[in-house]
Each structure stands twice: as C-alpha cells, then as structure tokens.
Amino acid sequence: MADKFDVVVIGAGPAGYVAAIRCAQLGLKTACVDKWLNDDNKPSLGGTCLNVGCIPSKVLLESSELYELANNGIAEHGVDIKSAKLNLPAMMQRKQKVVSELTQGIAGLFKSNGVSSYEGHGMLMAQNNVEVTAHDGKKQALEATHIILASGSHSMEIPSAPLDGEHIVDSTAALSFDSVPKKLGVIGGGVIGLELGSVWRRLGAEVVLLEAQDSFLTMADEQIAKEGLKLFTKQGLDIRLGARVVSCEVKKGQVDVEYQHKDETCHEKVDKLIVAVGRRPNTDELASPDTELILDEWGVVHVDEQCCTNLPNVYAIGDIVRGPMLAHKGSEEGIMVAEKIAGHHAEVNYDLIPSVIYTTPEIAWTGKTEQTLKTEGIDYNTGIFPFAASGRARALGDTSGMVKVLADAKTDRVLGVHMIGPHCSELVAQAVIAMEFGTSSEDLAVTMFAHPTLSEAVHEAALDVRGNAIHIARKRK
Ligand code: FAD
Ligand code: AMP
Predict the structure, then answer these.
(1) Averaged over 352-377, what is the pLDDT?
(2) Whose CA is nearest to atom 40 of ligand 1?
(3) Which atom in ligand 1 lies closest to the alpha carbon of residue 279?
(4) Which ligand has the minimum distance to the alpha carbon of residue 211?
(5) What is the pLDDT of residues 253-285, one digit of tens each?
(6) Architecture of domain 352-464 in CATH?
(7) Which of 160, 218, 277 is the pocket-test mutation for ligand 2 (most atoms within 8 Å of CB)?
(8) Do the domains 3-155+280-348 and 168-277 sit in the same CATH topology, yes or no?
(9) Nearest ligand, CA of residue 52?
(10) Where does 344-413 show beta strands of DSSP type E?
C-alpha cells in the first residue's frame, strides 16, 4: 500500500531539505527521500553540500588557513610560534565531526517539523507516484499531490583524465587525502579547483592548476579576476591558462599529465591529480521514461521561472535545473516552490544571487559585471575602494584587494558590486540586501557604517562613485 502525502521531495540536499521543511511549516504532509550513505554506510542528510561540498571544503579552508598563518604571518603580529606542525588526521577528524553534527542536525529538523524521511533511491513514476528502493532492495510506493525533484549533481568526468580513486581523483576524494601530496595537479580553474588547490598549497603541496580557457574566472568581474590571478600566483599557486589536458598516464605512482598549451604539447608529473571540471545533474534514473519529464542534452530538467517542470504538480530545484550550481540558489528555489504549493506567491531574484570563492583573499560579487554592462551598452559609473586604505584591514594584516561598485549613469541604481579581499563572503550580503531594495550608490553613500570595519570599504566604494571617498588620496583641481 502506498503512503500518501501532500508533497514528496526527492533529494535532501540544500534544495530538497529546505523545500521539505518549508512545506511542513506550511502545514503540508511532507516526505523526503534521500539515498546518501556516509563512509559508515549510514544515511546522511544534507546532500553534496553538507557531506562533500560547501561544508567540508570550508572546514579545511579554515583549518589550512590557520596552519599557514601559524607558520607564516602570525610573527608579524608579534606572536612567535617556533614551528607549527601539521596533524592531518586531527584536521580531517574535525572536518568529519562538523559534517556529522550538521547532517544529524537536518535529521533533527525533519523530526521536529514532522517531515517523514525515507532512505533509498526515489524515482518519479506515472500519475505522481514515487517509488522508493531502499538500500536493502525493498520497494515502497509513495503517492503525492505534489512532487519536488531535487536530486543534485555529481562531479563531471573527462576521458582525458579517467578517475582511478588513488592518483586521479574528484573533489570528494580531494577532501580526504591521508597525506599532503608533494606535487598536486588540478584540472579546472573554477571555484572548486581554486578552493581545493588553496587548501593543499597551504598545507605544503606544490600546486599546478591547469585551466583550458585563456582567461581566468570568466564569470567574475574582469578587474577582480585579474587581481585574483595576481594574488594567487604570488601565494605560489602555479596557474596555467590556456592549458587543455589531453591525456593522463599513471606511471610509477605518479601521474604524467599531457596538456596542450597554444601549439605546444606539454607534460607535468604530479603525485595526485584533482579533476574539477564542473558538475552534471543526477537525472539519469530520476524519472521513469513513461513520465516524459523533459531534460536537455546535459540532463538538466526543463523548468520555468517558478521551477515548474512540463509535468503537472512536478517541480525541480537546485543543481538539476538552470542557473549556477550553488546551495543558496537551490534553497531559495525550495522555499519558492513550497510557498507556491501552499497557494502563496513567491519568487527568486535570479539577478541577485551572491557568488563567493572562499580563497584568500575571498572573491564575492552580485549583480552585473563591468564586461556585461559594456556588452549590454549600459552607461555606468564606477567606485573603487582598496582594502589597503581600510584601518580594519590594516589591523587584520590583510590589505589585499578592493570593493567595486557599479552604478547606472542615469539613475544611479547600483547594478553590480564586486569584491576581493578579507571576509568578502560576509560583506557581499550588504550589497545583496541594498540591491534587493533597489539602492542607489548615493543611498549607500549616505548610510552610516561602524568604524573600524571592513564594511566601510563598501561605503567608501559607494562614495567613490561620485569621487567622494574620504580615505583615497586624490588631488583636487
Ligand atoms: P545535492 O546537494 O547534490 O543533494 C542532492 C541529494 O539527492 C543527495 O543527497 C543525493 O544523494 C540525493 N539523490 C540523488 N538522486 C536521488 C534519488 N533518485 N533518490 C533519492 N535521493 C537522491 N555551493 C555553495 O553555494 N557554496 C559553496 O561554498 C560550495 N562549495 C562546494 C564545494 C565542493 C567541493 C562542491 C563539490 C560543491 C560546492 N558547492 C557550493 C555546490 C553545492 O554543494 C551544490 O550547489 C548544492 O549541494 C546543490 O544542492 P542540491 O540540493 O541541488 O543537490
Ligand atoms: P567550474 O565549471 O567552475 O567548476 O570550472 C571548471 C573549469 O574546468 C572550467 O573553467 C573549464 O574551462 C575547465 N576545464 C574543463 N575541461 C578541461 C581540460 N580538459 N583541461 C583543463 N581545464 C579544463
């Protein structure tokens, strides 16, 4: 007999679990099906994000930054540490502890909100039925008025670098190396490649990052990306642009990576190679063929602005639909769909999704880049404030980078805010909030910011749109 629900969600990542909790909060009888098993073969809610994505990568970024600071940088503050020693097993144990606490937290939230949790693979069947195949092979039918698909994504593989789980690995394995590779190769200069490359460089690896495109971080503002490339290179990340990997061979415990650079064929020998070339939606076995769910050639589920699929009462959210593969984007879609099912109106503002790269310095932005404004023929004014002129950044001992505000030349409405520097992952929220309320650069300029804070850089960049920044030396005519 089928269990009956108002809503069944397939996938308990940040898109699915948030959707399930919000549905339950809105009084809908809700179930969530998830198949993730941790290393102990135990169900672990939270999807990629909590288990092998956002959270463990940020834990290692924090820990490795502390290690690097202890060895190099803390002396400048008058704190002498003879020589910091790396205890990698302890670092990994801490990472796992944070992951377990958070994944168990989701299980707790399901319980307190009354979301029924089903373990196993969920498949959308005809007439709004979901078939759950548990890990022991047992099948259970669920019947739902509404179904939300949120099955997430997996690392993409490329034939030129087949994963062997030991020498050539994906991001998941790269979060759990049991020793620091002497020489580490990374294919892909995107967010994941840069973050993982940074972790292992800080812990002592020599890191070579091979990126097929000729330009660096094409989705970011060009000026910020250029500054990032300069700073990462200075730290010792060997970033090679225009380097397309064409084949890999494992020989005597090392990977011989062959790549094409302009017209030259080059080779690099590394001890480990991380393949970080993007992610693909988990949609191969998500819907039975007779449902006729429409996917594109990459397996992306076709949806409208409100995340409705081509099937009545079936929605899709998160990494399996268009847009950036980001946890917060999936969560917001989850809330929008839950509200819609409950009969309320809700929207996601796709123009103001914050993007963050958690390197040192951090890179963050929202809204349009300068190159997009140029392409779209929009006249704009620019305000820039360097962290070198911020008292708080000086106190931190971290003065690299800047905040940049782009405002419409006619209306002064802020169209984009881009930043590279300390704690930009937090600062970008100010830009998102202000822009959600349709701020002008003048609104930001007349707002009071506490002193001394890094936030003052946002204030000064807004003042600079009219050339009125206080802490930038400028000759007046
Ligand atoms: P997922 O998190 O992938 O969850 C999907 C869940 O569905 C999984 O538990 C899966 O097992 C389950 N599932 C799949 N198919 C089925 C099925 N048929 N039946 C039952 N269950 C199923 N994003 C950020 O915003 N910030 C970051 O800092 C960040 N860092 C990242 C670092 C790394 C190393 C990686 C790999 C990713 C990172 N991301 C980050 C991306 C982020 O993890 C994803 O965008 C996010 O997890 C997508 O959420 P989701 O709910 O759509 O899917
Ligand atoms: P992202 O999609 O942000 O995770 O970034 C993945 C990056 O990997 C992109 O910038 C691609 O250009 C890059 N990439 C994909 N295939 C290759 C390859 N064979 N060699 C080098 N870089 C690659």
Answers:
(1) 98
(2) 54
(3) 36
(4) 2
(5) 999 999 999 899 999 999 999 999 999 999 999
(6) 2-Layer Sandwich (3.30)
(7) 277
(8) yes
(9) 1
(10) 355-357, 362-367, 380-386, 402-408
Query: What's the topology of domain 168-277?
Result: FAD/NAD(P)-binding domain (3.50.50)
State if pTM tops 0.90: yes
- What is the reported pLDDT for 128? 87
Instruction: Flag whether pLDDT at 116 surpasses 70.
Output: yes
Q: What region, left, alpha or beta, does residue 41 occupy, with left being phi > 0 and alpha being psi -120 to 50 degrees?
A: left
Q: Does pLDDT of 477 surpass 80?
A: no
Closest CA to 415 of 355, 468, 352: 352
**What's the average model confidence in pLDDT over 416-428?**
98
| Ligand 1 midpoint to CA 339 (Å) | 22
Q: Is the CB of 386 under 6 A from ligand 1?
A: no
C-alpha to C-alpha distance for 8 and 33, rounded to whole angstroms: 8
> Which pLDDT tens digit goes with each residue over 189-236?
999 999 999 999 999 999 999 999 999 999 999 999 999 999 999 999
Q: What is the CATH architecture of 3-155+280-348?
A: 3-Layer(bba) Sandwich (3.50)
Which pairing describes strands 121-125 and 116-119: parallel, antiparallel, or unpaired?
unpaired
| Position 72 confidence tier, pLDDT thresholds 50, 70, 90 | confident
Q: Compute the average pLDDT of residues 17-27.
A: 98
β-bridge partners, 414: 407
**Average pLDDT of the segment spanning 8-36:** 98
Q: Is 278 left (phi over 0), alpha (psi -120 to 50) or beta?
A: left
Task: DSSP for 202-221, please give it.
Answer: HTT-EEEEEESSSSS-TTS-
Distance, first Cα to last Cα, the chain: 83
